[in-house]
Amino acid sequence: MFLLGLLPFLAATHAQSTASTFDIELVEANFEAAQLVPELISTFTPEGVLNVTFGGTDISIGQNLTQDAVGSSPTLLVVPSSNATDVSTSNNYTVMMVDADIVGTDEGATGQTRHWLVNNAKLVQGDSGYSVGYDGAISITDYAGPGPAAGSGAHRYVILVYTQPSTFTPPANLSTAHTPLSTFSFSDYVSQTGLGNLVAGNYFLVENGVATVSVPSTTPVNTATLATASTTSGSSSPSGTSSAPSGSKTSSASSSPSSSPSGAAIKQTIGMGAISGAVGIVLAVVAAGLGL
Ligand SMILES: *[C@@H]1O[C@H](CO)[C@@H](O)[C@H](O)[C@H]1NC(C)=O
Ligand SMILES: *[C@@H]1O[C@H](CO)[C@@H](O)[C@H](O)[C@H]1NC(C)=O
Ligand SMILES: *[C@@H]1O[C@H](CO)[C@@H](O)[C@H](O)[C@H]1NC(C)=O
Ligand SMILES: *[C@@H]1O[C@H](CO)[C@@H](O)[C@H](O)[C@H]1NC(C)=O
Ligand SMILES: *[C@@H]1O[C@H](CO)[C@@H](O)[C@H](O)[C@H]1NC(C)=O
User: Fold this and answer.
1) How confident is the model at residue 133 (pLDDT cuts 50, 70, 90)?
2) What segment(s) does the record annotate as region Disordered (predicted)?
3) Fewer beta carbons below 10 Å: N end or C end of the chain?
């Protein structure tokens, strides 16, 4: 009785934190500028912002981070937009972190290294948003920090939260807890398991040494353009609205044809690097387990 009386009060105090339209557009623009959309993910309409915190420090989207800074699993918080429909304490979620490799990678032709995969995660409502909780979750692949190969360029590590409907069916080889990291087809996993909407995502960069491969350049997101696009006469400035994200793609696209012929060789090198990087982590884990 006493607890029931508290419920309306709790509900009221929890209803505050929401992500603004600008926050959402910023995520969308960053995923496009980093060419994660549409190369890795064909479309992304976030229902909130995913705050990623390593060792008590929030990352900003697209940030360069050291391997040491991201060695242990982050805490995740979903701050929903006011019209979010899939952010709920009664759903299950799948949390993933994949290595999308460097900008310019043909995501359809190469696999992605799976650094983290959790099914049956939950959202736990709090004052600042919904923290991702793991009560009843199954950690298919335990968090394994990035280990990009030396000289392989700045890899993009993407953390994603999907709704996981009751019809979700994991593949046989990714249904057991503590399956070691490996490369897999991220897009096949998403489409073939029956995952639901991509609710929120974030990404960061980790580079090991100086790149010995050519990485196509990208143009940072111009937030002023975004703010203008979202608040002022959107229809009267169509070129301003669309030129920031697509402009960055045009400029990087124009630089990539020249790297296309050598692109295949680069991808192979990267692929090997990613694999040796992955092996390096496994060996490090094994070594740690043996106390070496
Ligand atoms: C990350 O570092 C690279 C150099 O390795 C630099 O070109 C890029 O601008 C940096 N990105 C951010 C978001 O700081
Ligand atoms: C929320 O509103 C935004 C902007 O109006 C729209 O793009 C988005 O599709 C809406 N999301 C949902 C889940 O309805
Ligand atoms: C979540 O991230 C957004 C964007 O980086 C930031 O504005 C907000 O303060 C963060 N919220 C919390 C609770 O950390
Ligand atoms: C959600 O996950 C729990 C385990 O934590 C499971 O018992 C339940 O069946 C799942 N619900 C759905 C709808 O998949
Ligand atoms: C799981 O098995 C499928 C074939 O059923 C294969 O294509 C895929 O590469 C395997 N995934 C992993 C992570 O081993």
Assistant:
1) very high
2) 228-263
3) N
* Whether 141 and 235 share a structural domain: yes
Q: For the segment 232-241, what is each residue's pLDDT rounded down to a tens digit?
A: 333 333 333 3
Q: How much distance in Å is there from the Cα of 242 to the middle of ligand 1?
A: 24
Quick one: which ligand is closest to 92's CA?
A: 4
Cβ(278) to ligand 1 under 6 A?
A: no
Asked if residue 186 lies in contact with residue 98, where contact means CB atoms within 8 angstroms, the answer is: yes
Q: Quick one: 148 and 280 in the same domain?
A: no
257 or 277, which is more confident: 277
- Phi, then psi, of 214 in degrees rounded to 5: -90, 125
Number of domains in the chain: 2
Does the CB atom of residue 62 touch ligand 1 within 6 A? yes
Instruction: Say yes or no: CB of residue 131 within 6 Å of ligand 5.
Output: no
CA distance 10 to 127: 10
Do 290 and 171 belong together in one domain? no
Q: Which atom of ligand 2 is nearest to the CA of 82?
A: 1
* Span of 1-5, 156-160, 246-250 with lowest mean pLDDT: 246-250
**Is 166 in a helix, a strand, or coil?**
coil
Residue 62 has pLDDT above 90, yes or no: yes
**What is the pLDDT at residue 16?**
61
Looking at the structure, tell me whether residues 190 and 289 fall in a common domain: no
**Residues 50 and 129 both lie in one domain:** yes
Side-chain-side CA neighbours of 272 within 13 Å: the count stands at 7
Ligand nearest to the CA of 188: 5
Q: Are residues 92 and 157 in the same domain?
A: yes
Using the mean position of ligand 4's atoms as its centre, give its distance from the Cα of residue 196 in Å: 14
197 lines ligand 5 (CB under 6 A): no
Confidence (pTM): 0.78
- Structural domain boundaries enclosing 263: 19-269
